[in-house]
Design brief:
With 409 residues, the chain is of the alpha+beta class. The protein has three domains: 18-165 and 253-318, 2-Layer Sandwich (BirA Bifunctional Protein, domain 2); 168-230, no CATH class; 326-405, Anticodon-binding domain (Rossmann fold). It contains 15 helices and 16 strands. It has helices at 18-34, 48-54, 60-65, 83-92, 137-153, 169-183, 192-200, 211-217, 220-226, 233-249, 293-296, 311-318, 335-347, 361-371, 380-385, and strands at 38-39, 45-47, 67-71, 74-78, 102-111, 123-132, 159-165, 253-255, 267-275, 283-289, 304-310, 326-331, 352-354, 372-377, 387-392, 398-402. It has an eight-stranded mixed sheet with strand order 1-5-6-11-10-9-7-8. The chain has a five-stranded mixed sheet with strand order 13-12-14-15-16, with helices on both faces.
Length: 409
């Protein structure tokens, strides 16, 4: 019978991988909790309309990458990202009535149908933050600080923060018009996606990775528009205020006017944090402000900002983490007593196993030396006296103690 193999673009996270995943998840809880964020868990599938309205019907995610299926005359989609789902929950559960800011963090799987590549799969995992209710640049600074703190807590320090401001819908209109005017003569040279974006969302042109399109956008007259200053006074003040806070916090950053991010809901601040150890696909964190999204999805007008990080990419940077050994392994040829003692130790919070197959005593000791820090030896003499012999498997030191007085450091 043929073996059924794992699907392309997915990956088993094996027991040997789990120490690094637990490390990332525990650090997320630790760091984000310090900032007053609360964990939220939303369903992995939502109404398709949520992503069409939230992420944007001009994005590659909605047009090409979503896993969508019909069920009971409803269109459902496995979540390609989690901001829209968290916003839906924020609205549906009345969290706008809570005192601002409302800070929510999440972790979990996302799904996109795209070409698998290093650090990117069709089922992948993200950890992220969404902060609601604060329009001031203080929220932008704190969210970026939170991302940097988290990455540093993982031991990642060779990082670059790239920033841009997309302005507000009002001040972006003139920029879009000027961009379209200068690009229009080159439209036949652009890829099919960019020709579609030209009409629907010209800002997304700058997000294209096609070498042919990048060559067009590098032309002097187009760069003059891209590098020009189209931001209104209010948006400019917001961005400059953010930069001053980042200076105060000692966060190094670079301005990148080509940075627009790949989702339609962003306005004003957008940012990416890049690792200098990942090659061309080097972004480990992406985020920005999305002040209109809550209202667009049916809620009250609520400013918001957030970020997400791909956990597979983080794991690739962190490398392997040594698997923790058991604290104890019970060595005994009396199965009934071994079972009983193992459970006694587990009830004390000690990680512990015994030999389920009742191998010879020497074989059990060999196994103990591979998987545990201590061997807890329970021979017939120990059983009759209510004692055990505890052997430190690193130093080979051993001592006999009362069975009800076992202490393992």
């Amino acid at each position: 019978m043929a073996i059924i193999k794992i699907q392309k673009g997915t990956k088993d996270i094996l027991p040997s991988d789990m120490p690094i995943w637990h490390f990332m998840e525990e650090k997320a809880n630790e760091v984000f909790t310090k900032y007053g964020a609360k964990e939220i868990r939303t369903p992995i599938f939502e109404a398709t309309e949520l992503f069409a309205r939230g992420v944007g019907d001009t994005t590659d995610i909605v047009n090409k990458e979503m896993y969508t299926f019909e069920k009971s005359d409803r269109s459902l989609t496995l979540r390609p990202e989690n901001t829209a789902g968290v916003v839906r929950s924020f609205i549906e559960n009345g969290m706008h009535r809570l005192s601002a800011p409302v800070k929510l963090w999440y972790k979990g799987p996302m799904f996109r149908y795209e070409r698998p590549q290093a650090g990117r799969q069709r089922q992948f995992h993200q950890v992220g933050i969404e902060v609601f209710g604060i329009k001031q640049a203080t929220a932008d600074a704190e969210v970026i600080m939170m991302a940097v703190d988290y990455l540093k807590s993982l031991g990642l320090n060779d990082l670059t923060v790239e920033l841009n401001t997309l302005g507000c819908p009002k001040c972006r209109e003139e920029f879009k018009k000027n961009l379209k005017d200068v690009i229009r003569p080159y439209l036949p040279q652009l890829c099919e996606d960019c020709q579609t974006r030209f009409e629907k969302n010209p800002l997304r042109l700058l997000d294209c990775k096609s070498p042919e399109c990048q060559e067009v956008y590098a032309k002097p007259e187009i760069q003059a528009v891209i590098q020009g200053d189209f931001i209104c006074e209010e948006c400019s003040e917001h961005f400059n205020e953010l930069l001053s806070y980042l200076d105060t916090l000692g966060i190094k950053y670079e301005r990148n006017k080509l940075l627009v991010r790949g989702l339609d809901y962003y306005n004003r601040t957008v940012f990416e944090i890049k690792s200098n150890n990942l090659g061309s696909q080097n972004a480990v964190c992406g985020g920005g402000r999305y002040d209109s999204l809550v209202k667009n999805l049916g809620g009250e007008d609520t400013p918001a900002i957030g970020f997400a990080m791909g956990m597979e990419r983080l794991a690739s940077l962190l490398g392997e983490k040594k698997e923790e050994k058991l604290t104890a392994f019970v060595v005994s040829n009396n199965i009934a007593e071994a079972i009983k003692l193992t459970e006694e130790l587990r009830l004390k919070g000690i990680t512990c196993e015994f030999d389920l197959t009742n191998k010879k005593f020497v074989k059990q000791l060999e196994k103990a030396s591979k998987v545990a820090k201590y061997a807890v030896i329970l021979g017939e003499d120990e059983i009759s006296k209510g004692e055990v012999t505890v052997k430190n498997l690193d130093t080979s030191e051993q001592k006999t103690v009362k069975r009800n007085n076992i202490v393992l450091n």
